Amino acid sequence: QVQFVESGGGLVQPGESLRVSCECSGFHFSRYDMSWYRQAPGQERVLIASILSDGSLTNYINSVKGRFTISRDNGKNTVYLQMDSLEPEDTAVYYCNTGLYSSMNIWGKGTLVTVSS
Prior knowledge:
By secondary structure, the protein is mainly beta. The chain has 1 helix and 10 strands; from the N terminus they run E-E-E-E-E-E-E-E-E-H-E.
């Protein structure tokens, strides 16, 4: 059974940092490119960062480039998102997934990140 368990969210002030994690199971994690998505209140879920299966290449949407860093530990079946210089616009529920399982609508519960003073 494919599972994504996101954790590490919370309430932070603008300018602060936070790292969220996603522990994956039920598939060969090390063979899959991984991505982080987020869904802000009242908006659709969007892809914000991706990393190749071996961690050799990453990609980001413009609004988080230079502030967020995606990484992975294939030995722990876990993908991370380090978020620095957080802004109120980053407030959202954050999810991890692969292209395959997102297309099958298999998602974890996500982790809520709230950026507010």
